[in-house]
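Thread title: Can someone regenerate the structure for this chain?

I was given the following input by a collaborator and told the matching structure tokens would be attached. They weren't. Posting the sequence so someone can regenerate them.
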Amino acid sequence: MKSGSRLLVTAMGLVLGAVCLEVRAQTAEEKPAPIVTVPGMPPVIDPGNLYSETGTDHVSPALAKDLPRVYVPNRRSNSVSVIDPKTLEVVDTLKVGRNPQHVVPSYDLRTLWVANNAEGRTDGSLTPIDPLTGKPGAAIPVEDPYNIYFSPNGQHAIVVAEELRRLDFRGPQTMRLHYSIATPKCGGINHADFSIDGSYALFTCEFDGAVTKIDLVNRSVVGTLVLTPFFDHPDVVAHLSVFESKPAVVFDPVELGGAIYVSHGMPQDVRISPDGKVFFVADMLADGVHVVDGEEFRQIGFIPTGVGAHGLYPSRDGKLLYVANRGSNKMLDRPGGKGSISVIDFATRKVVKTWPIPGGGSPDMGNVSADGRYLWLSGRFDDVVYRIDTDSGAVDKIHVGREPHGLTVWPQPGRYSLGHTGNLR
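Best answer:
Regenerated them for you:
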């Protein structure tokens, strides 16, 4: 071989070697680092998708004999409607406590808790439902249980005492009180999600237009963050930080067409992104979803969706976020509102589809079926439940009790439940 040819081959080898090294380096950089979780929390299997264990093929064998049902708490009927998802018929009606708000799967997936918060009274309770039989057990007296979550290590049930502005950490099975964390600057504390490592949670402050960050390790409030579509305008944030009750002219930018009137929003549901980097927060007054960096605890975005953005549910493949737009900015309203479902792409943080409820409606809270084919949501002001096809957006309606709220679909895929209507991981 001539020297020129040898030099050419050597040069090509060096180039190919460099390319291979670069590819290996890029692969190493792109692979997420393992997550160090709080003690006792199950490991994060895929750091790039913390919903990896809630896919369609991940229903626990322990749930094999559980009845396939949709449990619907009817706030004004003091009952739970039980729907057979195959026939779309109500097959049972369970009498529970006063003002049932949510049906919550327990951490170990063996009990469905009905949170009866008895609004304005002192006789709140939790009613257990056995998913094997679909029948309720004896209620446990609990003060002001608007919602229930579970610590990521399973040591505590976190009862959200909304009217009392506090979080009660209780035994996950006995519901005996262990300790409380007061949240005096979080009026209307209600919905939450947890960091990827389980060290903290973000809870929404419905009546203060904010979210509060709870350090679960040190059992303390880190701070409270006001949310607004105008998060990148300091004058707006400063105004909202004092929680004015009436809208006020805050700034007059030419690019936005004139004077902007703002008041604080009404944040509702929370859901973390698959990679654990940001939290999405639905806001029923802002008609969209705020994006919050949980680690730095600052707002970094806002996504307009529809009137009364309320519930948030990831698709079974962890790629999409379904947003239930309740069709009204009011706490109570007439049926037949401008309800819709917005579909957000997690990767781009853009709305890729919108499905209006035919004839109007009020989609509120619920979850996705185990096979991912349907999104089930309560119709809060219409006394119905919606079954929405996640391919076409087609809607079926089932009549239930008065003012249905946080329904749960059962069984669901996942290893353990963090609460609400089925925040499984």
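The radius of gyration is 23 Å.
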